[in-house]
Design brief:
Length: about 240
């Protein structure tokens, strides 16, 4: 191995030779890639619990409904929306939601399942809740919106937080992404296998051909004795 490292340092790595090694073992690389992709697909499909996400929307009012909304109001409201998002995930809201729905889950677990985002340049909040049960995800999203609206308006002294649209029962899971995991698993298998093959090649300090003798030892070859395998192949051809 030490000799091989010195040879590489002196002569450099032959990229064409490395490519030839990979092409020679292409069937191994492809086979491992297919197997790892299949394993990733099977694990994602049958072992990972699908998570559904339901989203409801609420409109934040900072003044009376009949009053005109100015650009200054929108700018101020955008600054307040971050506070609204934090309050919607606060313990008073999550505890009350759990109590009203009679759920057996912790306040922290519910808060982690809640995602609140703001549509750019609007006063609309997107309130999303993730859960393995699509029906419960929808129910939780609507309940967080309703309970949170009262808490937000009281704490921040806002006029109201009105419902834009209720959540729908999600028809397909938001995660995991089976296709993405399958492709990633296959790619990881291909890269790992190719890396191992190249590592074995670089660590192999055996002289395999006349070219290796001239390249690594710097001496010419006067003659070559054919191996027994070569003789057998010649006889079979005859």
């Amino acid at each position: 191995m030490r000799q091989r490292e010195e040879q590489i340092e002196e002569n450099g790595i032959d990229l064409l030779e490395m490519l030839a090694v990979l092409l020679d073992k292409a069937w191994v690389i492809i086979l491992v890639g297919v197997l790892t992709a299949g394993a990733a697909f099977g694990y994602t499909k049958f072992m990972v619990t699908p998570i559904y996400q339901a989203t409801t929307q609420a409109y934040v009012l900072t003044k009376a409904e009949d009053a005109a909304v100015t650009s200054g109001d929108i700018s101020l409201s955008n600054q307040l929306l971050g506070d609204c998002a934090s309050l919607l995930k606060s313990r008073p809201v999550t505890d009350k939601v759990i109590e009203e729905l009679g759920l057996k889950m912790s306040s922290t677990a519910l808060a982690d399942a809640i995602t609140v985002t703001n549509q750019e340049n609007t006063l609309i909040l997107n309130i999303s809740v993730s859960n393995p049960d699509p029906y419960l995800a929808k129910e939780l999203a609507d309940k967080v919106r309703d309970v949170g609206a009262n808490h937000v308006t009281e704490v921040m002294n806002l006029k109201a937080m009105n419902t834009v649209q209720e959540a729908l029962i999600p028809s397909k899971p938001a995660s995991p992404n089976i296709m993405k995991n399958t492709v990633f698993g296959g790619a990881a298998g291909v890269v790992l296998t190719a890396g191992i093959i190249l590592l074995i090649f670089l660590m192999n300090d055996k002289i395999r051909s006349q070219d290796d003798v001239e390249k690594y030892l710097g001496i010419g070859v006067l003659g070559a004795i054919p191996s027994t395998e070569d003789k057998t192949k010649t006889k079979k051809k005859k």
